[in-house]
Each structure stands twice: as structure tokens, then as C-alpha cells.
Amino acid sequence: MLQLHHAYAAYPAHIVQHLLLPQGALILYPSADVVILVNASSLSLVRVLAFSEAFPSTLNTTETIPCIAVDSGMKIVFATMNTRIAAWSLSGVQHDTWRIHSTLVLPENHTVTTLDSRSGLLAVGSQRGLSVYTLILENDLPTWSQKWTVPVPPPTCVRFAPSLMYIATLSSHDNAIRLYSTTSGRQTQIVPHPRPIMNFSWRQPQATSRDDLILYTVTNDSTIRIFLPVLDSPQNLQLHASLDLFSSFPFSIASNHLWQLPSTAFWLDREVVGNALKEILKQRIEQDDARGRRIKEILEERWDLFLRVLGDGSIVVTAVAATNPSKAIYPTTVVALDLTWPAFTSLHLPSSKSVLSPVAFFDAQTDGLRLSARMLSRVSEEEAKIVRLVRTPEGRGVGIIRSDGGGEAWRVVEQGTRLVRSGYWTSADHVVVLQGGRTFVTYSASNSMLTLHSAPPQNLSIQNIAYLFSVPSQDQDDSIIGITPDFSIVHLHAIHAPSPSLILRSQSTLPLSCRPKMILPVDPMAWGLRQPWTQPDVLLSISHAGELAFWVPEETATASWRIVPGSDGDELTIWDSHESEFATGMEFCGQHSEPIHDLDWTSTPDNQSILAVGFLHRVELLCQQRMTYFDEGPGWEKCTTIEIGSFISAHIQDSIWLANGSLLIAAGHQMFLYGAPPISSKKETLFEYAARHNGPLDDYHPQMILQCLLWDKVELVKEVIVNLSRDIASHGSNLNGIEWTSLPVERFLENDQRDSSVSTKRDIFCENNRPQWDLQNGVQRKIYTQLFHGPEQKKESDEEAFSRPLVKQLINALEACPLPHLTPNEQAHLLALVQATLEIDEQRRALDSSGLRCLISMRSFYILNRRASAPSSPESKGAHPIRSGRRGRIRYRDMIWAFHSESQDLLLNASIAACNGKLGWSDARALGLPIWLTSIETMKTQIEAIARNEYMAGENRDPTACSLYYFALGKVKLVHGLWRQAAWHKEQAVMLKFLANDFADARWRTAALKNAFALLSKRRFEYAAAFFLLGNSLKDAVNVCIKQLDDFQLAVALARVVERSNEGPVLLEILTDTVLPIAFKNGNRWLGSWAFWLLHRRDLAVRILLDIATALNIQVAEIGEPHYDDPSLALLFSQLRSKTLQAAKGTSEISGRSEFNFVLQMARVFCRMGCHVLALDLVRSWSFDRPSMVIQDDSDLVDQEKKLCPPSPTLSRRSRFDRATRRRSTILIDMHIPSLPPTRTASPERPPTGVSKITEEGEEERLQNEGDFFARKVGLGNLMKSAKQDVKVPEFDMDSFF
């Protein structure tokens, strides 16, 4: 999703080192307190070795590493700081891992100035002399033992000879090279020079002559000197050749370069060049040209090559033939390239795989040496550690703030894959980056000066600023917000054209009742959304009590707020700023054992949020997850982790999102830029991942299909299934990257016609076989352009239309080849819903809407459980194992649909058929029969069937399995007869004797109760409940079911059967003391609505769907988080709000604003579920009652009714409540009007004109603005008064009242 594009390390300040590895070559150089390793060919960062890894006390030091050394044989890197030396080695197991090898601490005042190491020998030059250490391995623990030390002038450079017999040193005190014996430390020779020496090196020996001592030196005039051993004294060196500018050019040409910039000279490694030339000659065996002969000559003559870069960028290569003490030396100019090349300070050819093309290079062609990578120019500010990152509001510019107060401004280019430095500053207390990183503003607290770094710079004197940041602007200029220590808000404007300037717009304070604890800026989350109607939050104020308030600059804007609970430890909570009474705003809460150091937001083009959580060595990216019925998961989930521990051991200081979804991470002195993979890689980007997990769903997604089925869009689902079958049939098994057939949005906005006259097939089509839509004047209707004149359409065949063969074929295809981007759980649900759609379509004509919804979930429940427990079908050939777990029951939501259905007989038959005609208690509880069956006689019949099936289950025919149900039915004699057949049971004799007694006698009822308590002590809870029923103690039996068996459904079933009523005292006590507290604790509004409905508080059954009902006198110990994450709540509310008179009363007591916010919340849930088109359908089709005003007097009420209602003589005289009840042609009277206790505070009566109403306490009661509640009360009173005249009629036509 994100990959590393660039790592920005500091430019090398000293001569670099190189290390040749099998997988490539590395370049090493020190920077501040770290050693940086980069790839030799691409200059990409490989590793940062921090000195604090070996010496933790130097973690926050300001000291720097002056020099490093590399032992190429043992693959050890050395670095020094003051008197300490650290060594890292390449792991032998993990070849790309560097580990601490050893450490060495010198005596005090022996500050290290230079290092060199070869084959386990370490030469250390210090302020006090030269020392040599030997590596010793004791018990696999490397230690360094001092071999010798001699006092010498402080060396600035030390080099071991290839033979390890001598050590050459260079000091800044004189112009001489000193040679020392490695074995004894004795000085053997001093090699003087006429000028200061800049660099020197030993020539690497040939394989046949390892002991040759050949030394190259370079002085400050770019003259190369070659020193070779004396013939009769091989341990002494003498000058054999000098190569200056005049050695490479004729005098006339060389004199022209004397006035230019000084040239630099280097030597080319003969071994590396020789290996490259050998490979080229192997490829050019058949070619015989001038180029080949020149290369062959260089290789055979064993020339030593020296490269010189002149001040104008020209390159000259000089060859020295026969660098042998016994032969003469002949300098020859081999190459003279005229290039525009930067001045070199260091040159390394670490391997033959370099960017130097020998054939073209030695033929003096310009393409012989090409630039493959280039580092940024060096600035002194990059040596300080990065403290913080700041960005422009749109993320196209970023500022790097370092520990010394300096920093740089960078621009984001190339689609967020590269940064370009645009400027830097040396000292500032606050910095704001403007114009996409092109300019910046700095603030200095010392002189209270704000400076715009433009041409020319602009200054503005301003009071002390504690925080400074920029905010989005609609024009080309920039807005800047400053916060003072006393929490005043300073608004500034930076103008860039035509002339730059800084303007103070305003200075004000936030209208807060108390002083805030802090005020912070709010980063814009959707940088690309610049529509006029959007206004991002700018400021966030946090009070001492934990109150969050969001602010915008406009004076008319209001701040949203919420209370954030305190947390222990590092707790990450994510809140939604869209606050309402239906959502607390908290979407995620997670505990982290590691400290969280940084948080930063970004947003996709579809406004999907992504949060970067920064820890010490990694950054976790959290993406918003789609809500689903299928998986119980958090609202946010980690999508990927960015680890930088493989690059650097320093802690992450800051991470910040930039434009195009790029993430910049700062650690130590370095920056790491992560971005989207290139398009050619065909890898999924972060934004694509976020859209797939939180964006709109395809038509065929099981969640979309399920919601369409629940919202009475069965015909639409059938079309989706047909389209899915056609797409799969046309593409076969290759389903990746195909374009799925999608229905037009208008089709989702239709309502399915369920009468028998409507055909399920499309008989009339337009020319393109698609219906046309007329959206003029806001009216949507089909236009049949070819109703009479169009060609006769072909009827769809059975294979193409929705039918059982098509569904079977589709299921087999999905089992053999799962759809891409569907989880195994979603795949299983898709298969279940496709099959369930077929089965309900065959029965939907006999079911009402509520029954249809329950049947959908019931079919899906059993199909899914059957598929979860069964092996792969033969058709699937094991291609897609179903890993979706079994569910214990259908949801309470589906049980409540069945409860309100008028087709319970059909649902009961379907339930029994799903259990293969053997309905046991586990099946009845899973389907919620005790909850939704309303007929007592039917309930008794099913309990008897359950008892019979429980007894017949198994081979032993155990009477204890069915005693509870038969005792509830009062069939003690039947159980007695069953015990006669249980000869195998050890309790047969006792039970036969006990059940033979007459339990109408109080004596035997008491005996049954004693046995029940004895069974409780033996933890035989179900059998104990049976004996409680035998002892005529229903209350004790249901308590056992609730407390010991944790099965309130069994308690409800027993209470209803034993009391033979739905209004028995034990049942009502179960609902009040058990069911309602469970519903409130779990935030389950479905279960709470069902309980209130049975308690004949149907006004509360409606209100609880939108609000926590508190009018009923019940004891609720805990009220949990209300779960408004089910859009089907809106369906239930729309169905119940005018079903009965009580429900209509409860609806009238819900304010219009609450209903409006409720619908918006359900629409948000639809969007979070990926069903955006259903959210559109919900807000488009929801019917709101007209708003009403506060009653003032009769004339005002009449005027308001006329203004707010349509110009209809009938509707203009009807109140809101009247029209709410007219949604149904009939309404059930279920309330006694005089004795009904109010479910909310009574509305104050309207006093006569000019008279104030006085309360019992004598205080004047003001008329509060209760929205549209008073208008509803008027309508409710009129309706009740009329309804009271004839309360014996169970159902009546509401039209008779108007």
C-alpha cells in the first residue's frame, strides 16, 4: 500500500568510505552522531548506525563523529566520538542486518582523531599518539587488546599498508607522511612534501606481489605523487612520478586552466577497472576496432589510471605505465572529456557495476560517465536533529524544524514521491510554510518579529505567540492563525502577489465561560474538498473538565463539543465530530502498551479518513472499517504498519501526511518519504484499500443484498442476482478486473410493487434495453417511448430469468470460484442470501412485510449454519472452504419482526420445516418462539411438541428431558407414565412413587419444593425448575431459568403457558425486572421495544427507538451505549408509530428535530455500511410531519396552520397528530384516556390573555418553547375526546373523525 520512495540523509561532510558486499557496494560516511550507509549505485539509504546504539549515554549529545573506518575483510564498521570507539558488524545469519560488534574506550584526554582497520588490527590516532589494537575472541566475545602505542604528532589520517607491515600517518602539523612498523611501532621513514597533503592511499597489490609498497599522495595543488620502494632498500619509499595539470595537457592548454577553479585528482582502483575490462573483452571477442584495442592495451599493460576533474567540469584520465621500481614511468593522457560536471571532492569505484561505461569512457565519449543518482547539496542545518514537521493545509509543502532552531522548507513534487528543498532558515521559534512550500514565515520571540521570507522579506511586529499555523484559504494568499499565551486568537493574512506583505486581520478571544486548558489547531482532513459549502474546523479548545469545542473563524459558526472520559495509560480513542443525541461520537477505543508519540490525519478523495499512529520505531495506519451485520469488528482497524527499525535505531520524532497520500517520517536527522506504489506495479494503493474497506459496495455484495431485502426491494435483488449470474457466466473463472453490471441509481429509489398484477419481468424497454427516467419537476417516472410502436421484445428464457435453475447454477459457480475482495464470511453469506432469496420469493405472496423480513433472516440463519457445519460440496471441489462460524440464534431484530407480523402461522410452519419437523427447545430459543408467538394456545401446542421431541431425542428416552415442559402444561400423569417405561433409569422407582401423589395437596407441593432445592444444590437446574413447577411455584421456576440457566426466553415461555395469559404478573415481572434491564444494559432497542409493547406501554415502545424511555418506574442498574448502528430501526419506527393509539401518542411526544436527527443517523449508518444509495433512498422517501409552532392564541394558531400546511381546506385544519394517525386506514385503540399517566412532562396550559399562570409554589411558570409538542397535544386531545365516545370498537376508520 505504501512503499519507501526516498530517504533523505545528510550530505557527507568528509571523505567517504566504501564497502564491497556480494549483493552490492555500500558508501559510508559520518553525519552528526550517526554513520550513514547508502547504496553505491542509487544512493538510496540502507542503514543508519547511531553511536548511541553502542553508548546509550550519547543519545542526546551534540558531539559529532569525526571519522570512521571500514574493515572490508571482516565487514566491520568503526566510528569514534571523543575517546570512545564503536564497531558494527554485518550479521552472518541475516546478511542485511548490522549489529554491535564491540566497543573500546581510550583513556581520558586521548581524543580519537583518525581510525583504520585491516584483518583484526585497529590503528587509532589520537591527540596523544598512535596506537594499534588486536582483536581477541574470548568465549565468542570480541575484545580489543592494545599491541603498542607511541607518541606522535596528532595524526589526521592513518592507513595500513596492504601487507600490514607498515602504517602510514598524516598530521596537520607538517607536510609529511610518516611510516611505522606494525609489529613494533618503530618509525621507519618520513616522506616530506612541498605542500600540505590532502589525501593519500596505498595501491592495492597484485595477486603475485602482495608485498609491493606503492603510495599515492595528493597535495592541495591537486598534484598526484607516486612513491615506490627503493631497489636495494624495499622498506623505504622514494618519489617516482608527479602528475600535475601540465602532465595531462600541453602547456598551451594547461595554462588556460590555471585561472579557473582548482582541479581535483583521484586514482582509479586498478582491480575494479581490470575486472570491468575483462568482462567487456569477453563480450567483444569477435570485434576488432580501436575501442577494443585500447581497452586491451590498458588491461595488458597494467596501467595505473588517474582521474582529474578540472574547474570547468572537464575530465582527464592519465595512465601511468609500469609502476615498477625497475622500470621507467611514462604518463599518458588516455581520456579528455569536456563535460559540465560538478567539482569532485571524493571519488570511489567500489565495484565493476558502476555507472562508468569503459568502452565509451576510454573512447572520450560523453556517455561514458553518466549520472545515476545525486544527493542534495549540503546545508549546515541538516546536522541538527529533527524535532517537528509542519505542513501547508493542502499538504504540498512541509517544513522541517530542527533542534537548533533552524530548518528547511520543502516542496512535494512528482505526485508525492519526491521532496525538493526550497529554502532554509537558521533560527526561529515558530515556523509556518506557505505557498506549497515555496515560502515560509518565521517568528522570533526575542524581538517579537514575524518575518515573511519573500523577495524582499516582510516583517511585522506582533505580541508573544505560543502557537502559529496556517489554515486553508480560498484564494492564492494564505491565512495564518496565532495563539498567544493568554489564549487570544490572532488572525493574519500573507499576500504574495503582486507585492508580498503581512497584514494583521483581527485579534480576539474565544467566547468561553472559563479559561481553557489548551487551544490546538485542527488539521484539515479533506484537503481536496474546497466546495463553498464546506467549512473545516480551525481550532480545538480543551477545558479542564475535558470538554472539546471546535471553532471556525466565522462569527456565525457554532462550536460542537463533547465530553471525553479520562483514560489510564495510553488509550487511543477516535471520535466523530458529527455529534447528535443518537451517537456519542466515539467510534474506536484501543489500549496500547507502548507510548504513542504522534497522531496525524489524512483523507482520501472520497473523504474516508486514515489515521497515522506513531510509536517509537513504527507507524501504524488505521483505516475506517465498514459496518457490517456479518462480522463483529471494531470501527477502525490497522491496515498496515511502517517499520523503520531496519533503517535506523533512532526514535520517530514526528510523522505527517502530505499530498497524494504520502507519509513523511522524521527520525534523528533523517526523513523517510513513503508513498503509493507506481501504477506499473499494479499493487493496491492505500486509498484503494480504504475505498474497498469503507467505500460504496457493489450491487452483489451480501450486505447490500441483505439491506435491500429488509427494505422490501426483493424485485431489485432478483435483478442483481440475474446480473451477477450473467457476468460470471460470460467471464468464467477469471473474475479479476472485470466490470460488473450495476443497476442505475434510479432503480434503487423505486418501491417494489407486490400485488399480483405486477410482473417480475421487464416487458417494455427503450432502444438501449434500459428504462428512461423523467426527473423534471422532481417527479420520477418511467417513460415508455415504444409502448405501441416499438418492436416486439423477446421474452427471457427460464435460464436468464430469476428461477431455481439459475440460482443453483450461480451457487455452484460461486462455490467453485469465489468473488474477489470478499472474505470467506461474506462469501458464505452471499451464498446463503442468494438461496434465501429464492425460497422467500416462492412464499412472499402470502407474507406481510414483517414476516418477510423475519423469513429472510431465518432462511439465511439456517442455510449459513448448515454450510458452516457441512464439508465443501462436490461441485466446489474444495476450492473454497467456508470458515464462517455457527450462530446460536437469530437476532432480536428478526424476532421482533416476527412478533409484529400478521403471518405468524406461516412463520411457525417455516420454523418447524427448517427443523425437519422436530422442534426442540434449542431450536425454539434460536428462533425466538417465546418472544414472537402471540397466541397462548399456539404456544402451548408448541411447548407440548417441544416436550415430545426432547423426550424422543436420543436412544434412552429420558423423562427428565421433558418434565419441565409437561409440568408447565400440567400433565403430571403423562410424565408418570413415561417413567414407567424408563426401566433403565436409576431414579425410576423413586420418581414413580413420588409422582403417584396428589400435588393438589399442600403437603406434596411442599415436598416438591424441597426436592427442587435439593436439585439446585446438585446443580441440576432444569430439573429443579421442573420441580418448582410441580410445587406450584412459577416464580421460583422462572428465577432458576433466568439466574442459573441464563435463559430468559425459557422463563417467558413458562410464564405464558402456566399463567395462560400475556398479561400475567410473573410475565410482567420478567419483562420489568429482567428483559428491560438487559435491553438497557446492552443498548438493544429492539428488545426494549418488545418489552414495552407487552407491558402495554406502546408509546414507550415507539419512543425507545429514538430515546431512552425513563417514564416507567423500573430499576435499571446500568445503561449501556445505545447502538444506533442498525438502519432497520427506522423501518420499525415507521411501522409502529401509527399502529395503535398509544403508539401514535408516543410518536407525538417525539420532537421533529429528534426524528430528523434520527433519520440522518440512520443514513450515516447506511453510508458506513457501504449502502450509500440506500441512504439516499431513505432521506428521499422518509415522510416527515410538518413542523408546528408554540401556541400563543387561537388566531395565531390558525394563521400558523395556514402558513405551514398545503393550501387544502381539509389539511389546513388538521393537527400534526391527526395526520400521523392517518398514515394507516385504521388504528387500534389500546389506551384508557382518563387514567393514562403521561410519559413526559405535561405541557403548560395556555392561560387567558393577560393572565399569568401561577404554580402551587406561587412562582410564575413561563411558557417554554417545546417545538411542535404543543400542536401535537391539541390534536391528541381532540382525537382522544372523539375516541372516548365509542371505546368498544376495536378498530375504526380514522377518516370518520374529520
Automatic annotation (TrEMBL):
One of its GO terms (cellular component) is RAVE complex. This is RAVE complex protein Rav1 C-terminal domain-containing protein. PANTHER family: RABCONNECTIN-3A, RABCONNECTIN-RELATED. Residues 563-1178 form the RAVE complex protein Rav1 C-terminal domain. Gene3D superfamilies: YVTN repeat-like/Quinoprotein amine dehydrogenase. InterPro entries: DmX-like/RAVE_component (IPR052208), Quinoprot_gluc/sorb_DH_b-prop (IPR011041), Rav1p_C (IPR022033), WD40/YVTN_repeat-like_dom_sf (IPR015943), WD40_repeat_dom_sf (IPR036322). Pfam families: Rav1p_C.
